[in-house]
Structure formats: structure tokens, C-alpha cells
């Protein structure tokens, strides 16, 4: 059995990301089906044997590990709905690669983690399309990152919150606007009392009693990220690449500096710098290495 009951009509399938499924009157809401088509085929089979007649796939954000056109196809005939602000990046593989890594390549080797692919037949999510599931805006990880709350008290938080293993695997948490991600953690803190369970994309199920602790360790990890960037800047390292390399080299578990990790961390560092720039904490300058940053004076 792939589907495990969380409570009432809500199920989840373990994975990275985990998938949340809410079944009501023959309709299955499948949130973040994941990338693997083999796993999706097994989910589709179980949905059919549970009497599901209609499938609505809901995608939290554009990152390629959360869906693929092949995995969606394996679920069975389905409507696929994406938040408006994530739509174009989910529909276009090249745009997604550009925003994730900074290079609009369609060649997936070397430093791109997932093959570049388009998603056909995608629709913009309109909240009126959903009856038993509510949307919750949780920006920060990505611009339009959206959570989904079921009527039986389960909240799929996607990548707005990470489990301990992910927090320690990445030298700084992966959010494109970490300052906005901190605000989303505050939104989730307010919603904690109304939900019995949170399901994280990467990190599994969290019971109500443990939610605040998990949100707290996520906030601390982001704040540590800002400290790491500031520390690198105070050592005179200025380009996002230099800062990323320094952070990876000095992280708790010194990481193997593979191309994908360095490329991704460089993009993440830009997000931290953007937040610091908006707060007047850093200023740009031109260096031999290109556009660089330093701590603002005064
Ligand atoms: Zn993500």
C-alpha cells in the first residue's frame, strides 16, 4: 500500500517530496505527485481501486522534484492546476532551468538535477475550482509557493518548511526570498492551532504538538543563513559564487563541492543578498569577478 491514512479522507504517500491526497465523493486531490513515474503509477492504481473517478493534481511550486509530465500521466487522466505565479515556470522547462540555475540550458547533464521538460495541458489554479481543499499563500521558497489545507485538518506545507535532514544537508536553506520565507513561517505559526497535522514536502508528517518546534528550527536555519552570508562578506568575499563556495566549505558537515550543490547555493545566496539589499544592509560594486556585494557603510 502506497497510501497511508493521515486522518479522515486524507492520505499521504511517503517520498521526497511526500504526496498528500484528499479523496472526497470520488474526486482525488493529489498534491505534489513527485517526479517518479513508477511511484505515480502505483498511486494511480490505488486511487482507481478506491473508486476515484476524477483526479485533480495540485502543484505547490515549480521545482522539478515535485512533479513531472510523466509522473502526472501515470496517475491516470487528470486536470493539472498550478498557482498563477508559478504557472509559466511549470509549463516551460527552459524558463524553470533559467530561474533555478541561472542558465537557460536544455542539456541536463553536469549541474542540472532534473531533465528539462514541459508540462502539457496545465491550467491556472482558481480557488473556485476547489471545494474540499483550501489554498494558503506561502511565498519565500518560491514567489508563488502555495500550501493546501484539507477540511479534515491537514496542511500540506510543501517546501515552506523542511525536516531536520534537509536542514542539515544544505549549508543554507533553499529559499529564493528567505526574508519572505520567514514571514510564511509566521503565517504557519498562526495556522498551527487549526491543523492536526502538517505534511512537509521533504521531511514527512508533523503532529500539532511538534509543529512550533519544527517552525522554530526552520526560522533559526534561515537566520543562520543570513549570518553565514554576512560573515563571508565581512571576510571580503563579494560575488555570489565566492560566498557560496565559502559557506559550503565551512558548513557543519563540510560538503563535497559538486557542481549542482555549488550552482544551487550560488542562486540561494543571491536570494539572501536580495533581502539584505532591500533592508539597506549590503551594496553592490563591480569587481574582477563581476557584480559583487559588500556590507553597507553606516
Ligand atoms: Zn522546492
Outline the secondary-structure elements.
Blueprint: E1 4-7, E2 10-13, E3 19-24, E4 27-31, H1 37-49, E5 54-58, H2 69-75, E6 79-82, H3 87-91, H4 93-101, E7 122-124, E8 133-137, E9 146-150, E10 154-158, H5 164-169, H6 178-191, E11 197-200, E12 204-207, H7 208-234, H8 240-250, H9 259-278, E13 282-287, E14 290-295
Parallel strand pairs: 4-5, 5-6, 6-7, 10-11
Antiparallel strand pairs: 1-2, 2-3, 3-4, 8-9, 9-10, 11-12, 13-14
Helix pairs in contact: 1-2, 6-7, 7-8, 8-9
The protein binds zinc ion (ZN).
Describe the overall structure.
This protein is of the alpha/beta class and 298 residues long. The protein folds into 2 domains: 4-222, Metallo-beta-lactamase, Chain A, CATH 3.60.15.10; 227-295, Arc Repressor Mutant, subunit A. Helix content is 38%, strand content 22%. The protein has 9 helices and 14 strands. Helix 1 (37-49) runs parallel beside helix 2, helix 7 (208-234) crosses helix 8 and helix 8 (240-250) packs across helix 9. The protein is globular and about 60 Å long. Bound molecules: zinc ion (ZN). Zinc ion binds next to loops.
Name the CATH homologous superfamily of the largest domain.
Answer: Ribonuclease Z/Hydroxyacylglutathione hydrolase-like
Tell me the strand order in the biggest sheet: 1-2-3-4-5-6-7
Strand content: 15-25%
Residue-averaged pLDDT: 93
| Count of alpha/pi helices | 9
Question: What compounds sit in this structure?
Answer: zinc ion
User: Globular, elongated, flat, extended or rod-shaped: what is the shape?
Assistant: globular
Count of discrete domains: 2
How many E-type strands?
A: 14
- Which sequence of SSEs, written as H and E, runs from N to C? EEEEHEHEHHEEEEHHEEHHHEE
CATH architecture of the largest domain: 4-Layer Sandwich
CATH topology of the largest domain: Metallo-beta-lactamase, Chain A
Sheet having the most strands: 7 strands, mixed
Please state the structural category.
alpha/beta
Radius of gyration: 20 Å
**Low-pLDDT residue intervals, each spanning 5 or more residues:** none
Amino acid at each position: 500500500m502506497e497510501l497511508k491514512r493521515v486522518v479522515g479522507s486524507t492520505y499521504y504517500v511517503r517520498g521526497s517530496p511526500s504526496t498528500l491526497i484528499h479523496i472526497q465523493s470520488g474526486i482525488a486531490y493529489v498534491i505534489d505527485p513527485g517526479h517518479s513515474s513508477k511511484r505515480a503509477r502505483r498511486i494511480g492504481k490505488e486511487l482507481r481501486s478506491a473508486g476515484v473517478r476524477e483526479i485533480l493534481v495540485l502543484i505547490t511550486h515549480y521545482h522539478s522534484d515535485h512533479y513531472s509530465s510523466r509522473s502526472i500521466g501515470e496517475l491516470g487522466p487528470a486536470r493539472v492546476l498550478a498557482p498563477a505565479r508559478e504557472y509559466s515556470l511549470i509549463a516551460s522547462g527552459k524558463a524553470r532551468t533559467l530561474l533555478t540555475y541561472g542558465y537557460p540550458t536544455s542539456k541536463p547533464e553536469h549541474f542540472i538535477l532534473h531533465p528539462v521538460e514541459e508540462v502539457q495541458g496545465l491550467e491556472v489554479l482558481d480557488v473556485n475550482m476547489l471545494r474540499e481543499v483550501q489554498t494558503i499563500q506561502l511565498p519565500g521558497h518560491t514567489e508563488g509557493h502555495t500550501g493546501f489545507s484539507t477540511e479534515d485538518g491537514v496542511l500540506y506545507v510543501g517546501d515552506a518548511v523542511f525536516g531536520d535532514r534537509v536542514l542539515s544537508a544544505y549549508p543554507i536553506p533553499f529559499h529564493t526570498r528567505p526574508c519572505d520565507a520567514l514571514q510564511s513561517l509566521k503565517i504557519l505559526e498562526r495556522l498551527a492551532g487549526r491543523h492536526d497535522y502538517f505534511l512537509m514536502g521533504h521531511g514527512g508528517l508533523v503532529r500539532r504538538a511538534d509543529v512550533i518546534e519544527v517552525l522554530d528550527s526552520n526560522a533559526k536555519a534561515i537566520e543562520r543563513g543570513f549570518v553565514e552570508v554576512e560573515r563571508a562578506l565581512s571576510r571580503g568575499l563579494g560575488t555570489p559564487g565566492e560566498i557560496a563556495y565559502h559557506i559550503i566549505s565551512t558548513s557543519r558537515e563540510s560538503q563535497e563541492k559538486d557542481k549542482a550543490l555549488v550552482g544551487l547555493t550560488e542562486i540561494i545566496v543571491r536570494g539572501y543578498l536580495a533581502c539584505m539589499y532591500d533592508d539597506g544592509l549590503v551594496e553592490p560594486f563591480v569587481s574582477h569577478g563581476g557584480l559583487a556585494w559588500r556590507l553597507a557603510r553606516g
